[in-house]
Here is the input.
Amino acid sequence: MKTNQTTIHQPKFKTNTLLIQSIIGLIVIALVGYFGSFLAHSSQKLTLYLLTGVALGYILTRSTFGFAGGVKKIYVTGFGGLSRALIIMFAITMIGMIGIHWYAAANGAVPAFMAEAGDTIIPGSKSVNTLSIATIAGGFIFGIGMIMAGACASGTLTDIGEGATRAMIVLPFFVLGTAPGELVRYKIHDSALGKFSTTMYLPHTFGFIGALLVSLFALLLLYILVNKYEAFRKKEGFYEEELFAHDEKAIEAKRNYKFFSYETYHKFFIERWSFLTGAILLAVMFIFIVNTTGSSWGVTSAFSRWDVAFLQNLGFEFNSPAFTSILEDVNNGLLNHNGTIRNIGIIFGSLIALLLAGKFKFNFKYSVKDAFIYAGGGLIMGFGARCAGGCNIGALFSAICNFSLAGWGFTVALILGGIVGLKLFEGRLNIIPPNRHRR
Here is the structure.
């Protein structure tokens, strides 16, 4: 019987690397603690956002969990493990969120899009977005961009923390694309095209139990589809199961095991977590974020603030109502913006995960042509995300788990865009292998 355990003997040079990087990791943790205490002088909430960001980044990296990979991995390899984990994560989060929504509504709270002055808002319901042409177009464009860039918004942040210089190219262009996306979304909603839109909160249509059952049924259909496609790829003969690297596997327990040993350190900080473990922990973190802040997890709204702040310094003016709330946050200072602090935390969390595992290294394995494609992917990803009102986190994860129909529209558009991106760039970009029939 095969197990996922192994016997690992650490070469001396790897032991030295682990020692040095783990010390640096502890220094980074201390710096994060200092930064958190500094933020606490302004607001305890900022410290909370920083620490939740660190936790998210750590979980994403430790489990090699990515939202873009839910489309890319199964298309390229036929392996559906990450896609199934994403679906399970959505299901767990929905079950947690329906209780939060139902309890709040029973006490008089209303969805954010219906709220008037003085109303209590259902926690997380700010993620109930409008389903419109902007949502579909933005989702499709974002899907193409994430394939070109090699990651979505959260993935770009974690990749930076992991030393992927590709992501360091992607991020500034991602940010630059957000302001135009904000403007286009506003223009679409304010035009005749805005009539072809709807804001549907599923509990209002199906009731709370019905909304949960409908949502879980949709996830079940996706789960079955993933399994059937995986079975097709196995039968076709083009299937590659993802295997853990040798040093990512659990170490076989010894009879003379001691707690203060390399085996213990490996278990706590090096052994890779499964996709399922990552999914469960991310679902817990999502619910924790809603319970502590009243809002869901989002990434790219902060990017819009960064973009406007940068362009303002270059002399650009933002007079459109699309930028009213953004300008308020920019004028209040980016380090006072909750989303900005959480995004910084995600980068730190990923960095800490790899340093403590002794695996941090910069990656420069790409050509100039690849770099241009990364930049283009970042640009259209930024545009698409803000045109749609969010990325894989805000417009998909947060939307469907807060029972917004718009989340499902974005999901379909994103998957289609991702498939188009894969077909356009397979074999033409270093991070996308050739079509399986040509390998």
The beta strands are 5-6, 250-251.
